[in-house]
Write a structure and sequence with these properties.
Blueprint: H1 6-19, E1 24-29, H2 34-45, H3 59-63, E2 74-81, E3 94-97, H4 106-124, E4 130-133, H5 141-147, E5 152-153, E6 159-160, E7 168-175, H6 194-198, E8 204-206, E9 209-210, H7 216-222, H8 231-234, E10 240-242, H9 246-249, E11 273-275, H10 276-281, H11 284-290, H12 300-321
The protein binds cobalamin and iron/sulfur cluster (2 copies).
Cobalamin is lined by residues 36, 39-40, 43, 52, 98, 100, 134-135, 139-143, 153, 156-159, 166, 168-170, 208-210, 212, 215, 217-218, 222, 243-245, 247.
């Protein structure tokens, strides 16, 4: 940035990100993530990535963002709050949708907002290159969020901010432009381990480490529709039809949640749960109309129906036991 001091540009870009509707913004220097990658390799070695084959590839990019965008100097990290003041209605024969999936798909909402910030960086420095990400590449987004001072990694492995809790998505802008850098956020979990105790499937196998083979979002969102759930997953679905929020629901830091300014994250059709019979009988046409631009389209109709059948069976078994 030739004509204005680095600190002025840093302040300007951060304010621009806040004006674009992000709740938090921080900037980390693009260094090699050596320590983080040691933990990551151990996670892979233990098989905690389940069937997420893409996690086995592109280690070079996770270690070094310069392998994605040559010459990257800065990693700009933003938090997109998705909290809305609604709850799951406690109704029989319904399945709970995870909070992040109540509104429109963040993969459709966030990139355009990130591109606006990237354009502003390029306006300040016409020689700068940029690349934006949100859950779309081989980037350790949570680790960059910690380094950029957005929050710390909670024992449930999600990033928590002291100001807004953990109901936010992470957005990343890699850039060759240089800024002033933030300090990493210290850990404020202390002696609490409410998330580990509350997890219905004991997927938090040790503090900060989640085994995806046990984690409900892996089964209900990421597995192919023809993959049946193992019995220990079916027995512990705990009412979840799509995703799971239990570890974040119990986190004391989520008392600091604030309502999102992004209307597209308000619950579509005011739904936070779905009637299991409606899901089981849904036609492909109904599914594509109702879940167009929704995160639920990821599981496909057959996947959502597999989830609904497993949950229905479990709810009926529980009723018979009572
Ligand atoms: C793979 C993935 C999943 C997998 C695996 C989960 C996981 N914990 O990795 C599954 C499908 C299960 C999943 C579920 C969810 N996900 Co997800 N997921 C990802 C993805 C694509 C990669 C994450 C990754 O790299 N995992 C690899 C592991 C090894 O990383 P890690 O969990 O951070 O593990 C580190 C720690 O274990 C650490 N460690 C080990 N020992 C110790 C000790 C100490 C003291 C410390 C501090 C750390 C530490 O070392 C590891 C590596 O550094 C990211 C997007 C991205 N590209 O980053 C989104 C992402 C992490 N997911 C996100 C969300 C919202 C979710 C869900 C909440 C969705 C839902 N409600 O259903 C759940 C949360 C489940 C949970 N408790 O983690 C958000 C999290 C936002 C936030 N505030 O943190 C992300 C960042 C997407 C985004 N752009 O917003 N997800
Ligand atoms: S998302 Fe659910 S299953 Fe996964 S770690 Fe959190 S509480 Fe456990
Ligand atoms: S529930 Fe407690 S241990 Fe878990 S992430 Fe929140 S503060 Fe940390």
């Amino acid at each position: 940035m030739k004509h204005s001091p680095k600190s002025q540009n840093t302040h300007h870009i951060k304010q621009f990100a806040l004006d674009a509707g992000f709740s938090l913004v921080g900037i980390a220097q693009a260094v090699l993530l050596n320590d983080e990658m040691q933990n990551f390799s151990e996670w892979l070695r233990q098989g905690f990535h389940a069937g997420l084959g893409y996690m086995e590839r592109n280690d070079d990019k996770r270690l070094d963002v310069g392998a994605i965008l040559p010459g990257t100097r800065s990693v700009v990290v933003v938090a997109q709050n998705y909290y809305t003041p609604h709850h799951h209605k406690d109704s029989a024969h319904h399945g709970k949708i995870s909070r992040y999936a109540w509104g429109d798909d963040y993969h459709d909402v966030i990139p355009a907002k990130l591109e606006r910030i990237a354009d502003e960086i390029k306006r300040l420095d016409p020689e700068a290159a940029t690349k934006v990400y949100t859950d779309t590449g081989a980037i350790l987004e949570k680790q960059w969020a910690v380094r950029a001072g957005i929050g710390w990694q909670g024992k449930h492995s999600n990033i928590i901010s002291r100001e807004i809790g953990s109901w936010f998505f992470i957005g990343i802008i890699l850039t060759t432009a240089e800024f002033d850098y933030d300090s990493p956020m210290p850990d404020y979990c202390g002696t609490c381990n409410a998330c580990q105790q509350a997890c219905p499937t004991s997927a938090i196998v040790q503090p900060y480490v989640v085994d995806a083979r046990k984690c409900l979002p892996y089964w209900t969102i990421e597995t192919k529709p023809d993959k049946d759930f193992p019995p220990e997953v079916v027995q512990n679905l705990d009412g979840w039809l799509f995703g799971c929020d239990t570890c974040q629901d119990v986190c004391p830091w989520n008392r600091f949640q604030k309502e999102s300014s992004e209307d597209r994250f308000q619950p579509r059709f005011e739904e936070t749960t779905l009637n299991l019979n409606v899901v089981k009988q849904m036609t492909p046409e109904e599914f594509s109309t109702r879940f167009r631009k929704s995160p639920l389209k990821r599981s496909k109709l057959a996947g959502l129906q597999r989830n609904a059948s497993a949950l229905d069976k479990q709810q009926k078994a529980d009723e018979n036991d009572e």
